[in-house]
Amino acid sequence: MDTYLRSTAMWYGGLGLLTAQVFRSLALPPKYFKLIVLEIETMGVRSLAVALTASIFTGMVFALQSAVNMARFGAENYVGPISALAILRELGPVLTAILVGGKVASGITAELGSMKVTEQIDALRTLGVNFIKRLIVPRVLAALLVFPLLTIMADCLGVLGGMVIMYLERGSDMFAYWNTTAYWVVPRDFLTGVGKSVFFGGIVTLIGCYNGLSTTGGTEGLGRATTATVVHCTMGVIISDFFLTKLMLMLFW
How far apart are CA 2 and CA 8, in angstroms? Predict the structure, then answer.
């Protein structure tokens, strides 16, 4: 038990120290900006299919389940606002962060872990290269931009999927569905979800980077680190979502 608590405290401490180093190294030279563009392509474009497929089917399932249960109370007209609020505030940013974050962070861990095992990072230190600026900061900055954009697209498709499935399965009028949704959903609901996605992007990227840099034990240790990253990212997103929700409710409601 003591060993587990000690290793947990060391992990959180190391992650906090890495975060502080990233903040101190945010000013990048112009030659590193192309690395940010490359990371945006790797994180965003290659993750579009995963994020958008999950969002549209989540929106359809949520709308169907809500319609079946709310029809008992004669409140089927409010399926649109309920589905939209759930997607915009929670399902869109959280599912995008878990699916895309797990994929992105595990890839980062594998890449940086391979560099650590093969002593490439030690070589960068020897050459006097700031490996935080070169390897980590571009990934973090790219994630802070990519995750909100993916969340916005996921939100749009999720709400659209709910509207289409209500029209096809329940015969709802799409114009009335959209008007009811637009009446009850305000920009604040949309912006809170997008704001969460910024934090989620930073969290999952930092976790992936830290687990990669702390990899030990050769290829076997690399496999363990990659697996641990997926678990850490999922738990990090879910736990931080609660605290972010509480904070935003205190600030905006």
Answer: 10
Contact criterion met (CB below 8 Å) for 190 and 88: yes
Which of 211, 34, 251 lies closest to 106, judged by CA? 211
The per-residue pLDDT for 215 is 87
Residue 20 CB partners (closer than 8 Å, separation 6+) = none
**First-to-final CA distance of the chain:** 41
Does the predicted model carry a pTM greater than 0.90? yes
Residues 144/201, Cβ–Cβ less than 8 Å:
yes
DSSP 217: S
Question: What amino acid is encoded at 180 in this protein?
Answer: T
Q: Convert the pLDDT of each residue in 45-84 to its tens digit.
A: 888 999 999 999 999 999 999 998 888 888 888 899 999 9
Per the CB < 8 A criterion, the answer to whether 242 and 93 are in contact is no
In angstroms, rounded to a whole number, what is the distance separating the alpha carbons of residues 105 and 100? 8
Angle separating helix axes 48-70 and 92-117, nearest 10 degrees = 150
Distances in whole angstroms, Cα of residue 234 to Cα of each of 95, 98, 105: 10, 6, 10
Task: Give the C-alpha separation, 230 to 226, whole Å.
Answer: 7
* 133 and 30 Cβ atoms separated by less than 8 Å: no
Radius of gyration over every alpha carbon of the chain, rounded to an integer in angstroms: 21
d(CA 181, CA 191): 16
